[in-house]
Structure formats: C-alpha cells, structure tokens
Amino acid sequence: MNPKRKAIFLDRDGTLIVERNYLNDAELVEMMPGSIACLRELRDLGFEFCIVTNQSGLISGRVHSHNLEAIHAKIRRILGEAGIDVVAIYVAQAPSGADDFMRKPSPGMLLTAAEEYRIDLAQSWMIGDKPIDVEAGRRAGCRTIFFKQPHSSAFRFEQGFASPHFECHNWEQILNAIKEQAIDAHRAI
Ligand SMILES: [Mg+2]
C-alpha cells in the first residue's frame, strides 16, 4: 500500500500572497517575500501543497469568479515556473460569519482534500495569518503555524479558538519550524 501523502495547507491572502483586501485583479498578485524559496525546500521534504481560501467576496459581489480564476491561474503559473505544483485550490464561498462546513474556521476544505487526495492530516500542516486558519488546521488534526504579521495583531485567539503549534513572523521561520519537526519525526522512527 502506498504511504499517504503529506500536505501543507496554505491560506492564500496574507500567507502565500500579499493581503489586498478582497483581491479582484490578477495584476495585483504578489507572492509573500521568501515564500517561493521556502516552498521549494518543503517540496524537497516531500510535502505537497493545497491552497484553502475563504472568499466571501464571491457572494457579496466584491470578487468576480472570472477574476478569481485568473488570480489562481497566475498563482499556479508563478509557482509552476519555480517547480512547485499546487495539488488543489479550495474556495469557501460562504458569507463572513456563516457557520459553514467549508468556511474556515471549519475544517471542511482540509477534510475534503484529505479524502480526495489521500492526505495524512497528522503529517500535514496548516499555515495562515488568522486564528481561523489555525482553528481549521487544529480541527482537521494538522499541525499549525500562525503567520503573525503587523496586520495580525488585530486578531486574537479567543472565542475558544485553539492556539497554534508555532508562531512565525516570516517564511524562513515557517520553513525552519517544519524542518525541525520533520527531523524530530525522523529521529523517532
Ligand atoms: Mg489570510
């Protein structure tokens, strides 16, 4: 039997690409500093990548579906040119604050990916710049990284949301946290 795959679930805005607040134009896609080099190293450690993004703007009309497709095509192209393949991009369209299985903090996108792509959630990670990302990762049974940035200070781990396994301030710290865990896991065998 083939071993299950291990994945890194990436929040999109403020984690993989620069936060633009309801991004609706592929021209404005800008990768977060250091992200590409770090994702390449994570790929070499055997991780695959899924993007899991809340896009309530689709319902409210602030984001148009053809623009969303262009944005995701551009992200795939930029990463593809760097040798990084994105297995899948999951989009939760439910409105902000909705109690919806797919919308983070619910774990639906991660659980669906695990089923569709045979991903071992216990060997996987969720990275995001908001507590809802961490909560979704925890509920799915992943290890979690809170990517803390200046705009993250507005978010608090309250309302019963779980704390992250790691708090990092840039992509290099994220890479190092995952690498250390991978080495520890290898030693434990
Ligand atoms: Mg985000």
Summarize it.
The protein has helices at 35-44, 57-60, 65-81, 108-117, 131-140, 171-188, and strands at residues 6-10, 47-54, 86-92, 125-128, 143-147, 166-168. It has 189 residues and is an alpha/beta fold.
CATH architecture: 3-Layer(aba) Sandwich
Strand content: 15-25%
How are the strands of the biggest sheet laid out side by side? 3-2-1-4-5-6
Number of extended strands: 6
> Can you tell me the CATH class?
Alpha Beta
Give the full name of the CATH homologous superfamily: HAD superfamily/HAD-like
Write the layout of secondary structure elements.
Blueprint: E1 6-10, H1 35-44, E2 47-54, H2 57-60, H3 65-81, E3 86-92, H4 108-117, E4 125-128, H5 131-140, E5 143-147, E6 166-168, H6 171-188
Parallel strand pairs: 1-2, 1-4, 2-3, 4-5, 5-6
Helix pairs in contact: 1-6
This protein binds magnesium ion.
Residues 11, 13-15, 128-130 line the site of magnesium ion (MG).
What would you note in describing this structure?
By secondary structure, the chain is of the alpha/beta class. It has one domain (6-188): Rossmann fold (3-Layer(aba) Sandwich). The chain contains six helices and six strands. Strands 3-2-1-4-5-6 form a six-stranded parallel β-sheet, sandwiched between helices. β1, α1 (35-44) and β2 (47-54) form a beta-alpha-beta unit. α1 (35-44) packs parallel to α6. Bound molecules: magnesium ion. Magnesium ion binds next to loops.
Q: Which short descriptors sum up this protein?
A:
single chain; 189 residues; alpha/beta; Rossmann fold; six-stranded parallel sheet; 6 helices; binds magnesium ion
